[in-house]
Design brief:
The chain is α/β, with parallel strands linked by helices. Helices cover about 35% and strands about 25% of the residues.
């Protein structure tokens, strides 16, 4: 199944710490790495940290009906709940609750208002009743968790992820920049620093978004909890605004939750879901994430194929091209020049030599309507680029001479059938320890008889000026 999903187009697999043990994380990571190697693909691993997810405990008959207007008591413990008292899995929650707080249950379909609270329990009036099932989620839109987004369980999960060699950690229920600082500290000892993704799903994160963004490698617009804790009518506008601001700072953006939800059970998506996926592409998302559709759904391969089809159709529209980042830096100017040159000379692709991935990432932000082929010397950088829009990464052994490195890249492009003989290629280099390659844009034509030959220098820039 993993092999079929990779063939269908998966670039990143998410491992959910809330549902995986230490041994499972290691096992799943090893399987995915093996499959990726089998297909000669750089497939990234993202480990999702559970964060302070609050749930109801066990209920009598696995479900109870809460009647509007009545009272119910919430308290911690492992007892069996009923319509009058409900167990909650987060004892520290009761330190923060106060009269007037709103509590949402079962994906926001039930609403409670706290009328009295102590450190051991909270009495609530049922504002909107309904059916509550065992282990359903609890959301608190107007309450900031005093303990922050990183829990003791998350710290253990990070150790598992580092041992497994994951490429990204996504931090759940981020409330402030302080949460991302704590997450960064957990990675200090890592030999190869994984990327950090801030999941934006709480109203508090919207207020501190710029500071959160500055400490993150990318963001995830997690529309599930965000749509529960914020006004659902505002979620589409929030999605567009967050993606635009992430691009302006050079960060990648993932759009997630219920993208093709009906395909969890059905073989085809709804028209509204197809439109939602296309709009997320047009908003400027780098990646779109499937959840239940592939984790527990009946048609995991079909849903990936469908999402790939919708993405390709959306990107084929003549009007599709993401807005350029607002900030201008030397590397951004280089990226824009490379894309303009590629379009003007009818290039087949943009070939990027990059050691950190930064140059390829900046070009991806320009959304060129042709492939970005990134050559790097390390597998970790190649996998990190898997989440970037439009980038196909591959590894090359370091060489001291520019011509040798270009020749090796040309051979890879031809062997992988990404390009054909005599195709025009725009070559872009970041700062590399290679004689003759330092922040340049060059036009080359693939010629197997004379590999590595420079044809025309379009731009040569000193990035210190």
């Amino acid at each position: 199944m993993l092999a079929r999903l990779v063939r269908a187009g998966v670039d990143v697999f998410r491992l959910n710490s809330a549902h995986c043990t230490h041994d499972q994380i290691l096992t799943y990571a090893a399987r995915i790495r093996a499959v990726a190697q089998q297909f000669d693909r750089h497939v990234a691993l993202m480990q999702d940290l559970a964060g302070p997810k609050i749930r109801c405990g066990h209920l009598a008959g696995n479900a109870v009906t809460l009647r509007t207007g009545r009272q119910v008591t919430l308290r911690p413990g492992a007892f069996t709940g009923d319509a009058e008292q409900i167990p909650i899995n987060a004892p520290r929650l009761f330190r923060d609750l106060a009269p007037g707080n709103t509590i949402l249950l079962a994906d926001g379909t039930l609403t409670l208002k706290v009328t009295a609270a102590t450190s051991k329990q909270a009495t609530c009036r049922i504002v909107q009743g309904g059916l509550l099932r065992t282990h359903q989620g609890v959301n608190l839109p107007d309450l900031e968790f005093s303990g922050g987004a990183i829990t003791a369980a998350d710290r253990k999960a990070v150790k598992s992820g580092l041992e497994a060699g994951v490429d990204f950690f996504s931090v759940s229920f981020v409330q402030s920049a302080q949460d991302m600082k704590r997450a960064r500290r957990l990675l200090r000892s890592a030999a190869c620093r994984p990327g950090l993704i801030a999941k934006i799903e709480r109203p508090q994160a919207l207020k501190d978004f710029d500071a959160i963004l500055a400490l993150s490698d990318g963001i995830m617009v997690a529309r599930g909890d965000l749509g529960i804790e914020s006004d659902i009518a505002r979620v589409p506008a929030i999605q567009k605004r967050l993606i635009r601001r992430a691009k302006a700072r050079g960060r990648f953006a993932i759009t997630a939750t219920q993208m093709l939800e009906s395909m969890t059970h059905q073989p085809h998506p709804t028209r509204a879901e197809a439109t939602d996926v296309a709009n997320a592409v047009w908003d400027g998302s780098d990646a779109l994430m499937l959840s239940a559709e592939t984790a527990v759904g009946r048609h995991p391969v079909r849903v990936v194929q469908m999402m790939a089809r919708i993405i390709a159709a959306a990107e084929s529209e003549e009007t599709y091209r993401g807005a350029a980042p607002e900030r201008t830096s030397p590397i951004t100017a280089l990226a824009r020049a490379a894309v303009d040159a590629a379009m003007n000379v009818g290039a087949r692709a943009i070939l990027v030599f990059t050691e950190s991935g930064a140059t390829a990432a900046r070009i991806a932000l320009q959304r060129p309507l042709l492939p970005i082929l990134a050559a790097t010397s390390t597998d970790a950088v190649a996998r990190a680029l898997a989440i970037r829009w439009g980038v196909e990464a591959f590894t090359l052994k370091p060489t001291p001479q520019a011509g040798d490195r270009i020749a090796a890249a040309e051979t890879e492009l031809l062997e992988r059938r990404w390009c054909r003989k005599r195709d025009r290629i725009i070559l872009v280099t970041g700062s590399l320890p290679v004689h003759g390659l330092d922040y340049t844009i060059k036009l080359i034509a693939l010629d197997p008889d004379h590999p590595g030959r420079f044809h025309e220098t379009l731009v040569a820039s000193d990035m210190d000026v």
